Task: inverse folding
């Protein structure tokens, strides 16, 4: 027969084990959220090779503000969304480079980009004056057709309002093989229409970027490098289709099958 003292010790041990399990689970979740995406990745969203590159997907906090980290976003079968069509045939080329491309953009010139997505066109004005290395990388990757046929792998619809793209793996863990430093962070804000880099922490920008479709509060940690000049309606339509909540309520892969059929960038 178990004595009252033995029973007390057993209950205390069980309580301790439950506490340890909760702490391990909390650390696991924190590591997943903050292994700076997503990665995404964001990752960007952030986010190459098992989450090592800039990918930064976006993490939900108690206040529903968010920060990018590099954990992959699970994918699911897309749900048809009005205004979206089947992606153009093709697959990402998956090119990799050992180092950031040499500077070739003119920081005094204007650059524009067009994202021809399976849900409509989005046009961007790139700010080479304030983010020359970021724009240089984006223009380089666009010229290499690196973004073509890549999925926009992450959508957030609560707390922060962004669509994250630029990962050829479509998971939030991919990147171009190189990283480069942050730019244009002093006083950075993220109103609707902002284009910014997802990352996995300071100085880990790669290929993943996010498009802000509604005013969003984020710390000034993500390089803003342009603004959306057309296609906010496209982004809001994608957001209206929702996401799969794979990373928590309001955070996951978009229900729409959003694919960048092609991305072009030109000096204007």
Result:
């Amino acid at each position: 027969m178990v004595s009252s003292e033995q029973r007390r010790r057993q209950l205390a041990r069980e309580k301790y084990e439950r506490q340890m399990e909760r702490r391990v689970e909390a650390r696991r979740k924190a590591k997943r959220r903050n292994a700076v995406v997503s990665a995404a990745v964001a990752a960007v969203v952030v986010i190459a090779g098992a989450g090592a590159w800039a990918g930064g997907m976006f993490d939900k906090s108690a206040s529903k503000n968010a920060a990018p980290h590099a954990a992959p976003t699970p994918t699911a079968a897309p749900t048809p969304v009005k205004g979206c069509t089947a992606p153009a045939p093709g697959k990402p080329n998956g090119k990799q480079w050992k180092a950031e491309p040499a500077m070739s953009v003119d920081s005094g010139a204007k650059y524009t980009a067009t994202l021809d997505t399976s849900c409509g066109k989005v046009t961007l004005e790139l700010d080479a004056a304030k983010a020359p290395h970021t724009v240089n990388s984006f223009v380089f990757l666009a010229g290499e057709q690196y973004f073509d046929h890549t999925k926009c792998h992450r959508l957030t619809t609560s707390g922060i309002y962004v669509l994250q793209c630029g990962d050829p793996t479509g998971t939030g863990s991919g990147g171009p093989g190189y990283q480069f430093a942050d730019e244009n962070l002093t006083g950075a804000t993220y109103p609707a229409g902002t284009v910014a880099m997802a990352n996995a922490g300071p100085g880990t920008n790669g290929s993943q970027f996010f498009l802000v479709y509604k005013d969003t509060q984020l710390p000034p940690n993500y390089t803003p490098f342009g603004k959306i000049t057309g296609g906010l309606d496209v982004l809001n339509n994608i957001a209206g289709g929702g996401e799969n909540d794979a990373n928590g309520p309001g955070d996951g892969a978009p229900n729409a099958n959003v694919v960048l059929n092609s991305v072009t960038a030109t000096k204007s």
The domain at 36-267 is CATH 2.40.100.10 (Cyclophilin). DSSP finds three helices and twelve strands in the chain. Residues 4-34 form the longest helix (31 residues).
